[in-house]
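Long-time lurker, first post. I've been practising inverse folding by hand and with some scripts of my own, and I keep getting stuck on stretches where the structure tokens seem ambiguous. Below is the full token string for one chain I'm working on. Before anyone asks, I'm not after the true native sequence, just a reasonable design that respects the backbone. If someone could post their per-position residues I'd love to compare against what I wrote down in my notebook.
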């Protein structure tokens, strides 16, 4: 809440509301598709896994959690068959977390839901406003996302 007398909400909160709605919708659709054992925290870690895999320390840093927390979440995802750990070809001492076959099924559902939601938002806002929103958010990403 602002103490300056300005009744407008912060841009951060205004960005958070649609993100939260998308995450909730996504978890609901995943559960309906039979993937009802994924938590929001696990999803936030899994969403950061790159195409060739990502080191646990990088997942933790990107998700803004401790390495121990990320490790615990990856352990849960691995037991459920969503991810696997493999040797890092660039460093024999390190391991990469990769999306496993079951995880690829989740990714497919997630991409479908994301496209549906984006289409709904575009229908609501209109093409021009959606394009302007995307352009503004992509510009903000330049100064807010160190992992872009």
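-- Answer (accepted) --
I ran through it position by position. Result:
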């Amino acid at each position: 809440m602002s103490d300056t007398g300005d009744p407008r909400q912060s841009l951060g909160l205004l960005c958070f509301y649609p993100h939260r709605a998308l995450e909730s919708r996504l978890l609901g659709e995943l559960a309906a598709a039979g993937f009802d054992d994924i938590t929001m925290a696990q999803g936030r870690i899994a969403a950061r896994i790159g195409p060739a895999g990502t080191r646990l320390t990088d997942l933790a840093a990107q998700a803004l959690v401790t390495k121990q927390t990320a490790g615990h979440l990856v352990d849960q995802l691995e037991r459920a068959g969503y991810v696997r750990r493999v040797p890092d070809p660039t460093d024999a001492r390190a391991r990469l977390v990769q999306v496993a076959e079951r995880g690829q099924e989740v990714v497919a559902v997630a991409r479908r839901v994301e496209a549906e939601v984006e289409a709904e938002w575009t229908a609501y806002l209109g093409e021009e406003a959606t394009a302007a929103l995307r352009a503004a958010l992509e510009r903000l990403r330049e100064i807010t996302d160190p992992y872009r």
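A couple of notes from the structure itself: The mean pLDDT is 94. The domain at 11-144 is CATH 1.10.10.10 (Arc Repressor Mutant, subunit A). Happy to go over any region you disagree with.
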